[in-house]
Amino acid sequence: MITKRQAQTLSCVIPGLNEAENLPALLPVLVAKLRGLVPDFEIIFVDDGSTDATPLVIEQLRQTYPQLVYLQLSRNFGKEAALTAGLEASRGQVVVCMDADLQHPPALIEAMLERWSTGLEMVYAVRETRNDETWMKRAGTSLFYKLMRTSNGLRVPRDAGDFRLMDRCVVDALMALPERSRFMKGLFAWVGFPSEPIYYSPAERLHGVSRFRPTKLLRFAVDGLTAFTTWPLRLLSLLGAVLAMLSFSYGLFIIFKHLLYGDAVRGWTTLITVVLFFAGVNMLSLGVVGEYVASIFAEVKHRPLYLVHRRRGQGLAQASEPAPDQKPLASPDQDPQQG
User: How many whole angstroms separate alpha carbon 71 and alpha carbon 55?
Assistant: First the structure.
């Protein structure tokens, strides 16, 4: 008979930007659900440089919900950095990551916790459908996951986002990783541990719209590919070898044709076309190599991944840690990421 684990403490990490309208709707539902699941919990909201009334709303909500911890970053560092800040501040035996727009249903946490109690270390939520997205975003997402599968044994679960429950050992492993390029979906897959998907249908967004624009999504995809795959570089090497062989073969053909038949070498238009084609391939190759060089440059600068402007609330933190009104600087050995 398998003895199920019982979680004593839980941390819920919510990174967000301009969520003043969503937080009053989320907190009552989330707190009510967590109170029935674990003896003690904390809710860590990481403010990634909000410009609306989010700080004021948080202060009001903290009067009602003392479990709420507020981390305000010094500026917008991007969701990956904000999520890392929340994970680093968490102290729970299990940690749940979710968004603030209620598209990640708090009711699913109970099922996640039940899966964890059977011995799993991570339970990640997978969207059943993407009908709420444009066809272009769905096509881009499908292409991205296909490209990610070419990496060295790494399998990023398709349609799995940041909504997941993790054991403390998984969070500690993530925080021990030294890289500054925090492509979290890849890192979740890289650390491994016994994991299992749980499927859900995202609810309608209550307020606002998604702030992930096509340019941000493209940048996000490039960061993921350069952080976890080297196939673009290998593809360029293969392309260069193939083009060199074709060019050499064509050159031999022209020489033998001239020697055997005395044909003059003609065709300036063809020559210019070939030259421009190879120039384009060279520029593309330099661009791909440049992305990898830029990633290396970001790593060696050793800037912090994020800076905390202020913290409100102690949560599950021990008394020996910084008080809520102190302003600790987090992750001094990590590199910032633009949002």
Answer: 10
d(CA 194, CA 119): 8
- What's the rounded Cα separation, in Å, for the pair 302 and 335? 5
Distance CA 133, CA 162 (A): 17
Task: Output b/e per residue, 68-92; b: 16+ Cβ within 10 A.
Answer: bbbbbbeebbbbbbbbbbbbbbbbb
DSSP bridge pairs for 9: 40
Question: What does the pLDDT read at residue 330?
Answer: 45
Q: Where are the alpha helices (DSSP H) in 74-134?
A: 79-89, 108-117
pLDDT (tens digit, 9 = 90+) per residue, 9-45? 999 999 988 888 899 999 999 999 999 888 999 999 9
Residue 308, burial from CB neighbour count under 10 angstroms (0-12, 13-18, 19+):
buried
Low-confidence ranges of the chain (pLDDT < 70): 1-3, 130-137, 140-141, 143-153, 205-214, 216-231, 234, 258, 262-270, 272-273, 276, 298, 317-339
- Identify the pLDDT of residue 211: 58
Q: In what order do the strands lie in the sheet with 160-167?
A: 195-200, 122-127, 160-167, 94-97, 9-16, 40-47, 68-73, 308-312
* Upper half-sphere CA count for residue 169 (Cβ side, 13 Å): 10
Buried b (16+ CB within 10 A) or exposed e, 217-236: beebbbbbbbbbbeebeeeb
Q: State which amino acid sits at residue 235.
A: L
Name the pTM for this structure: 0.71
Q: Are 39 and 94 in contact (CB under 8 A)?
A: no
Q: What is the pLDDT of residues 116-125, one digit of tens each?
A: 988 899 999 8
Residue 67's CB: how many other CB atoms inside 10 A? 22
